[in-house]
Amino acid sequence: MEDPILFALAVLAVLGTPGPTNTLLATAGATVGFRRALWLIPAEAAGYCIAILTLGLMLGPVLAAAPLLATGLRAAVGAWLLLLAFRLWRSGGAALTRGAAVRPAHLFITTLLNPKAIVFALGIIPFGRVPVLLYMLGFLALLAGVALGWVALGAALGGAAGRRGWGWVVPRVGATAVAGFGLLLLVGPLLR
């Protein structure tokens, strides 16, 4: 996708869609507040950059030729998300008092394994046709804006829940959403 406006719109549409990474960003904003959750954005950026560049430059042709490998990767991502959801659920309201339930390593690995990276690498970022560096820089700028939005949304919801005494609900809602994404990845191939 070489047209800069179409590229930006496509990136915003995919990044803005709720998913495991965005759920974790919102959960972090809700549990530790806007400013303390900002340090997760570099972890998201690093995860996407590594995944997109690896897929776009090396693994894209291999995954296209080996559907079984793609299914295995999908199952690994689903299992990781279920494990992360379990940890997030178990932390419950304690995340509000003892610190972040979502750590940079959690966000990095989740983003590294996020299926959206495949969409970016194989469908949106124009590898091989134009200098990819400018598109990656544009991607990172858009990513920062969208991530700020998810953190702000989480902080607003977390503040409202905390004022009502429902702070324990926020990490559990995030855990439920992350588990849902994990189950979709695990069960999806079986339903085809």
TrEMBL record:
Q: Membrane-spanning regions, if any?
A: 6-25, 37-59, 65-86, 107-127, 133-157, 169-191
Q: Does the keyword Cell membrane apply?
A: yes
| Keywords for this protein | Cell membrane, Membrane, Transmembrane, Transmembrane helix
Localization annotation = Cell membrane
- Answer whether the UniProt record assigns the keyword Transmembrane to this protein: yes
Topology in membrane: Multi-pass membrane protein
Which positions carry the signal peptide feature in this UniProt record?
none
**In terms of one coarse class, where is the protein primarily found?**
membrane
PANTHER family per the UniProt record, alphabetical: ARGININE EXPORTER PROTEIN ARGO, ARGININE EXPORTER PROTEIN ARGO-RELATED
Q: What is this protein called?
A: Lysine transporter LysE
Lineage at the top is: Bacteria, Pseudomonadati, Pseudomonadota, Alphaproteobacteria, Acetobacterales
